[in-house]
Amino acid sequence: MNRLQKFVLGCAAAMLPFGAQAEEYRLGLITPPPHQWTVSATEAAAEIKEKTEGRVDILIFPSGQLGNESQMLQQLQTGAMDFAFFTLGEFANRSPNYGIFLAPYLVDDVAGARELLKGPTAQTLLDEMSDFGLVGFGWGMAGMRIIVTGETVDTVENLAGKKIRTIPFAPELAFWEALGAAPTPMPLPALYDAFANGQVDGMQIDVEGTWNTKYYEHAQSIIVSNHMMFPMAAVGSGRKWQGISEADREVIDTVFARKLDELVARYGEIDAKYKAELEATDVSVKTVGRDWFGPAIDAWYTEWREKAPMLVALEAEAQK
Predict the structure, then answer these.
(1) Does 97 lie in the same domain as 211?
(2) pTM for the whole thing?
(3) Do 221 and 167 share a structural domain?
(4) Mean pLDDT of 172-177
């Protein structure tokens, strides 16, 4: 560090309130920089830094730079990492109740998902993040799930035997197995090349990722099914949380909660925007509903009401 850098850091420290100490924190997530999760994390970090007068400076590490979600969870639990935006995978594989948000056709659209993610069942599961050594700040989501395939798909039977990239957690794998497909988990950063070279035949994804990552360039069919929501949990390390002042904790809590709700609300517009972009390409875009999937969905519910008892309560909330 040269003299000028030391001088600048010294001036910055001098501007903090007496007795306060600035500290850098790390937030990891698997999505690339253009993805709305990364954008929202960056916005939240900037606001938190401003409202804590620089005491809490959260650095954003997208695209799995700090590891996959399993590795990042371990870092959070040991206090080697501070915050993360996670898919449900690591939680659902440890406690089946965290998989209930993936129930097919639980909600019709983003608006329905937004209400459920603020409801009592969602809050209970957020509170129970303490079982993993984490602090839960709130739920976000990506767009509703669609299906993108390298070959033409007209009926659900066309998916039989196809290698479909999924997230590696049980409720999603069970859905695809019920359809006769071959769910194939792989890290998101590896998906573009795997789809381009035929390692996978298709993917369960959203319209945002399909457009921004250009998966459609190697696709023949896009099935806009909106068959699942795809929640995200914003969490922090329980160990590191104890070292943050009560006042700064309140700022972090408040900012994350509001930014997450704004993120979910945006997806109604995001889904509509990118669906229109995809419809303007040469790829076949077909909209389908629950009936298109046949009996597999009812079979999924029969299995998962047994495995994850909180699903029944979530279904009751959804019916309201």
Answers:
(1) no
(2) 0.86
(3) yes
(4) 95
Domain that includes residue 154, residue range: 146-228+274-319
Q: Write 48-55 long-range contacts (CB < 8 A, 24+).
A: 48/251, 48/252, 48/255, 51/251, 51/255, 52/248, 52/251, 52/252, 53/15, 53/16, 53/17, 53/20, 54/12, 54/15, 54/16, 54/22, 55/16, 55/20, 55/21, 55/22, 55/23, 55/245, 55/248
User: Could you tell me the CATH number of the domain that includes residue 178?
Assistant: 3.40.190.170
- Alpha-carbon distance of 100 to 83, in angstroms, equals 24
Domain shared by 210 and 302, yes or no: yes
d(CA 145, CA 229): 6
CA distance 229 to 61: 24
pLDDT in tens, 103-156: 999 999 999 999 999 999 999 999 999 999 999 999 999 999 999 999 999 999
Classify burial at 44, counting beta carbons within 10 Å of its beta carbon; exposed 0-12, middle 13-18, buried 19 or more. Answer: buried
| Planar angle of CA 229, 61, 263, nearest 5 degrees | 35
Cross-strand partners of 287: 224
**51 shares a domain with 22:** yes
Looking at the chain, how many residues does it have? Answer: 320
Question: How far is 53 from 248, CA to CA, in rounded Å?
Answer: 10
Residue 3 confidence (pLDDT) above 80: no
Q: How many domains does the chain have?
A: 2
**What is the Cα–Cα distance from 33 to 212, expressed in whole angstroms?**
10
- Residue 51: how many other CB atoms lie within 10 Å: 17
pLDDT at 318 over 60: yes
